[in-house]
Amino acid sequence: MRSSAGFLVCSLLLLLALHGTEVAAQDDQSDPKMSCANWMGGAPGHPGHNGLPGRDGKDGKDGQKGEKGEPGLQGARGDTGEKGATGAEGPRGFPGHMGMKGQKGESTYVYRSAFSVGLTDRAPHPNVPIRFTKIFYNEQNHYDTSTGKFLCSIPGTYFFAYHLTVYMTDVKVSLYKKDKAVIFTYDQFQKNNVDQASGSVLLHLSSGDEVWLQVYGEGDNNGVYADNINDSTFMGFLLYPDMDDH
Question: Per the database record, which ranges form the C1q domain (predicted)?
Answer without folding.
Answer: 108-245
